Fold Trichome birefringence-like N-terminal domain-containing protein.
Amino acid sequence: MTEMMTSFNRSVSFKRSASLGRRAPSVTSPRVRRLSWVSRKFHVLVVIGSLISFIIAIGCGYLFLLPSFSQAFHDYDTSKFNGTFSSCNVFNGSWVQDDSYPLYNATECPFVEQGFNCLGNGRNDKDYLRWRWKPKTCDILRFKVRNVLEKFRNKRVVFVGDSMSRTQWESLICLLMTGVENKTSVYEMNGNKITKQIRFLGVRFSSFNFTIEFFRSVFLVQQGWMPKHAPKRVKSTLKLDKLDNISTHWINSDVLIFNTGQWWVPGKLFETGCYFQVGNSLKLGMPILTAFRTALGTWASWVEKNINTNRTQVFFRTFEPSHWGDQTRRICNVTQNPLSEARGRDQSLFSDTVLEVVKNMKVPITVLHITSMSALRSDAHVGNWSDSPFTPDCSHWCLPGVPDVWNEIILSYLLTD
Ligand SMILES: *[C@@H]1O[C@H](CO)[C@@H](O)[C@H](O)[C@H]1NC(C)=O
Ligand SMILES: *[C@@H]1O[C@H](CO)[C@@H](O)[C@H](O)[C@H]1NC(C)=O
Ligand SMILES: *[C@@H]1O[C@H](CO)[C@@H](O)[C@H](O)[C@H]1NC(C)=O
Ligand SMILES: *[C@@H]1O[C@H](CO)[C@@H](O)[C@H](O)[C@H]1NC(C)=O
Ligand SMILES: *[C@@H]1O[C@H](CO)[C@@H](O)[C@H](O)[C@H]1NC(C)=O
Ligand SMILES: *[C@@H]1O[C@H](CO)[C@@H](O)[C@H](O)[C@H]1NC(C)=O
Ligand SMILES: *[C@@H]1O[C@H](CO)[C@@H](O)[C@H](O)[C@H]1NC(C)=O
Ligand SMILES: *[C@@H]1O[C@H](CO)[C@@H](O)[C@H](O)[C@H]1NC(C)=O
Ligand SMILES: *[C@@H]1O[C@H](CO)[C@@H](O)[C@H](O)[C@H]1NC(C)=O
């Protein structure tokens, strides 16, 4: 067993506090990066298309009024813990080799999109599959599929965010499917296939009467058309004071996992003509990090107002680092082993902002501060082994892989507290 000597300086925080000082201070804008970006017309088409399919999806109707989590799982291995899992700094630790990984075979899981199945797409080295996260002062629970399936019985688990959230959603479904004999009893509720722009995907585990859902909301706040009298370069705006209007569908859930971050870059915003708006006023000069903080404030108020945290356990995952070899995002040199020292673009300013906003909230939120731990995993990106081998990808992760560990951490919180 090799122990990577790596530690870092972030702590998770989920304090209750009454202060509501959430005004955005002036801050420097985050490091600029360029992204390949869809043309505006395509973007508009896609928005219309996904709106229509979303309305159809919702039209089909689903209603879950679920009882609260109360069942305890006495047979779950908690013997290694001193005190509660949440008192441990789960994110201070190291990656250790463990041959009991990976936890599933992506080729046998119909919910892994082809682009993330690295082995299936020709990756030969397998070391990257065999790493477990070891917090310094506690252990993540061993994944025992039966216990998790029972824990989720009659529940609704909802992921909200960008494609990183979709990957994690796929990962959780595949983890859980290893415990389901009749694979056809697990299906997408509307018969939809996984596509990049789809607004809603919900997979039902019918024998256990629960769903694992994904809502695509890359900014969490609402994107709207160009306002009247706006300068020509403004094609659309991001309404920082309004949460995405599919948010009503996130409310009656039992587990709610958010992320945002990857789209808060000039290439996805200003370069596509998308600027910030608060109320009726355009904020043309507002730095991205300030806008990000404002949007998170909107999210925080929405959670406080709409989510009954007695029933719903809320998580927010911090920024997922990428490991591009250059500024133009063309070189992606996936390594064979994790780094011994965090490198990669970790956007810690975004992660710090999440921690800060959550700290000032009146309800308990668990921050999944996975930024630094994931920054060590330059070996775990899709690289050339995606569905389009000519566009390397040093942002997304292979499945099985790092997103499984994010899920194991969530499951540890759910099963120990
Ligand atoms: C991580 O653990 C090390 C050693 O136990 C400790 O020195 C360090 O302060 C910890 N970091 C955080 C952020 O808790
Ligand atoms: C399935 O779950 C829902 C929501 O908790 C519940 O109302 C319903 O009774 C459950 N169905 C069965 C067959 O247990
Ligand atoms: C995954 O499953 C496929 C199809 O059953 C099989 O061909 C492949 O060898 C398996 N891969 C691993 C790593 O077990
Ligand atoms: C648990 O607590 C005991 C004593 O209280 C200590 O010796 C031991 O190292 C602790 N184990 C862990 C994993 O923290
Ligand atoms: C598997 O599940 C499907 C859908 O729920 C059901 O129609 C089928 O009868 C099940 N097959 C077995 C062998 O239980
Ligand atoms: C979503 O927002 C748009 C304006 O941004 C509005 O026209 C539309 O009615 C909203 N849809 C729902 C379902 O609330
Ligand atoms: C949540 O639980 C607390 C303590 O049991 C109770 O005081 C509070 O009213 C509950 N909140 C809601 C919204 O049910
Ligand atoms: C890729 O990484 C390997 C090992 O870390 C290194 O030897 C090689 O020079 C790198 N190639 C590029 C193009 O960065
Ligand atoms: C990916 O492909 C490019 C060109 O096709 C090649 O230069 C590079 O070495 C490949 N990288 C890996 C990690 O295989």
